[in-house]
Amino acid sequence: MANTLTEQEVQQLRAETKGADRIAHFNNAGSALPPDVVVDTVISYLQEEAVNGGYETEAKYKDQLENTYDLIAKLINAGKDEVAIVENASTAWGLVFHGIDFKPGDEIITTEMEYITNLIGFINMQKTHGVVLKIIPNDKQGKFNVQALQDAISPQTKLIAVTHMPSSSGAMMPIVEIGAIARKHNILYLVDACQTAGQAPIDVEEIGCDMLSVTGRKYLRAPRGTGFLYVRKNVQDQFRLLFMDGFSSPTVSLHDYTIRPDARRFELYEKSRALTLGLGKAIEYALEIGVVRIWQRVQLLATSLRRQLTAIDGITVHDNGDELSGIVTFSVRGIDSQSVKTKLSEENINVSIGVAKATLIYMEKNHLSSIVRASVHYYNTQDEIRTMCTVLAGIAKG
């Protein structure tokens, strides 16, 4: 087991994050505070573009830009040719989902924790292609029923799509066990890992997924407008490309074109090179700390936060399951979530709101219109947690 982060290391990491001493930031599942080196990397690149020109600066940083693909591959244990850099997780997810050749009667299996963007995609495919959607509910203890998934599979099952760490709950889906079932039946398996990357280790070989979508702005602490897509090499040719340009199609004649032989076929040429470098620097930063060590720290802080919240009269913690993430969700009796968020903000404490539509199936099943979401990261401290819980105790008392 890796050594846990020491308090001295945490203080150093906080010193390398401008916002850490100005605000208690518990909205890392929304957008984490970036390290100073990430911000400096982006700004420096933009300044060079302004002086030297965009194409000229890109040529100068060719190797560093290319290295971002290597860093992503290392982060998730993938091949470099299985990685595409895109603007966000929704783009990554949509590129492969809408590239699948669905036929009427094909089945998609998902869970009650699926994110709104993905759910919209399922509904759209139902309406336009006659696809059948099967939803596997969690049991009364909040655990995903792996056997129910196994029982739901039929010869018509085309895709299993799962969000690993839901937007509005600390529960986690057993993506490795689900992957084993997908592999056993040779079914395409799509994992939304937008909250996972940078928070917990990801190994696409262990997961057994065919596709994986990730955003940069959350636990990776990368700039907004960054993300990436993983597509296993041996399934890349199964997807219809939604967009193509001279980058995805390297040779073109008046009558035909070729497609790149790697995952970059899912990219378009034009994107921010400054943000690409920022994404790479953020991943490099996380790898230097050690993702296992980050995960240990996040679990420590989240456990502490849940324990302290549970002890406050009038607060209900909503997270259930065998394994919980750094996303902590709760409500305060008699006070709407937006009011709680506003009162915390007045004390320089950032949290966010999980609205019903974000994880619609789960929220409606549990009769929740909204929840407060406090998401911890390794640069948060026990003092920040105690301060927030003191403020919340006062709010709960009215």
TrEMBL record:
Q: Which domain of life is it from?
A: Bacteria
Q: In the UniProt record, does the keyword Transferase occur? A: yes
Q: Does the keyword Transferase apply?
A: yes
Start and end of every Aminotransferase class V domain?
Answer: 26-386
Keywords for this entry?
A: Aminotransferase, Pyridoxal phosphate, Transferase
Q: Which InterPro entries match?
A: Aminotrans_V_dom, Aminotrans_V_PyrdxlP_BS, PyrdxlP-dep_Trfase, PyrdxlP-dep_Trfase_major, PyrdxlP-dep_Trfase_small
Q: Which Pfam families match?
A: Aminotran_5
Q: Could you state a single Gene Ontology molecular function term?
A: transaminase activity
Cofactor entry: pyridoxal 5'-phosphate
Q: Which family does it belong to?
A: Belongs to the class-V pyridoxal-phosphate-dependent aminotransferase family.
Under which name does UniProt file this protein? Aminotransferase class V-fold PLP-dependent enzyme
